[in-house]
Specification:
This protein is mostly helical. It has one domain: Phosphate transport system protein phou homolog 2, domain 2 (Methane Monooxygenase Hydroxylase, Chain G, domain 1), CATH 1.20.58. The protein has a two-stranded antiparallel sheet with strand order 1-2. Helix 4 runs antiparallel to helix 7. The radius of gyration is 22 Å and the shape is elongated.
């Protein structure tokens, strides 16, 4: 159930809608202050400017976490459709996908404004750059979740077998856990948690490879079931891709903490720090 809040006008709005409106409100208030200062022939002093910039950057960080929460809900809903063979959540998943896309656009616009007007440096600059990259991965994780739900709707009337269903469920649980861990690592700037999440991708890959072999064998023995088994295989592949995207998120966390890009390094391949 979505959390609801009452705004200043007494209207009830959803949490994700309030998130986007908050971003717009912060932007408008910032512009109003600068405009009024120009009209009055004054300049905003250094402390006020730094406080305003810090407030905007913190606002962006909170919005990314909220967007990540929506994406995590997408994974949970798509997993429910797949394993419980319940297609009723399909409409909700498509609606939430629109909310994720709207959040991506709002945050991206906010980052562009901060880069152009605030000219952040050092850790603040790394945060804004990391957020821009994280947005793309979060949006694509949401796309993978929507794809899983769409494929799962084709499988509602099909019996997949206990072992296959259990493997798909474990894949989904692992992928969702990796996303939650990556978001927690970002919220806390926790290097050790980020590394732990990256190592979890090995387990997800092992489950995927085992399920891949089982599904290929089933297609060889029952050619008439190839379309159905392929749908299950693409669902498993999407979960595996979500794990890869979560690794990317953790790499951005390490970039924030260490100030060093760890992509294409031993860490990116799951090696030890």
């Amino acid at each position: 159930m979505k959390r609801q809040h009452v705004n200043a006008d007494g209207n009830v709005v959803a949490a994700d809608e309030r998130l986007i409106r908050s971003s717009v409100a912060v932007r408008d208030r910032t512009r109003d202050v600068a405009t009024q200062a120009a009209v009055d022939g004054m300049e905003i002093d250094g402390d006020a400017r730094r406080w305003c910039a810090a407030r905007q950057i913190e606002d962006v960080r909170r919005q990314v976490l909220a967007m990540g929460g929506l994406v995590e809900e997408q994974i949970a809903a798509s997993l429910h459709v797949l394993t419980e063979r319940d297609a009723t959540a399909g409409a909700e998943i498509r609606e939430r996908e629109e909310q994720v896309n709207a959040a991506e656009l709002a945050i991206d616009e906010r980052c562009a404004y901060i880069l152009a007007r605030r000219q952040p440096a050092a850790s603040d600059l790394r945060l804004v750059l990391a957020v821009v990259k994280m947005l793309a991965d979060l949006e694509r994780i949401g796309d993978e979740a929507k794809r899983i739900a769409r494929l799962a709707e084709h499988l509602v009337g099909e019996e997949g077998g206990t072992d296959v269903t259990a493997s798909l469920r474990e894949l989904g649980v692992q992928a969702r856990g990796m996303l939650r861990g990556a978001l927690d690592a970002f919220a806390r700037l926790d290097e050790h948690l980020a590394l732990d999440v990256m190592r979890r991708d090995r387990r997800l890959d092992e489950i995927y490879k085992g399920l891949f072999a089982v599904l290929v064998e089933r297609m060889q023995h029952a050619p008439d079931q190839i379309p159905t088994e392929l749908d299950r295989l693409w669902c498993a592949r999407s979960f595996e891709r979500i794990g890869d995207r979560c690794k990317n998120l953790c790499e951005y966390v390490l970039y924030l903490v260490r100030g060093k890009d760890v992509r294409h390094s031993g860490l990116a391949k799951g090696g030890e720090p």
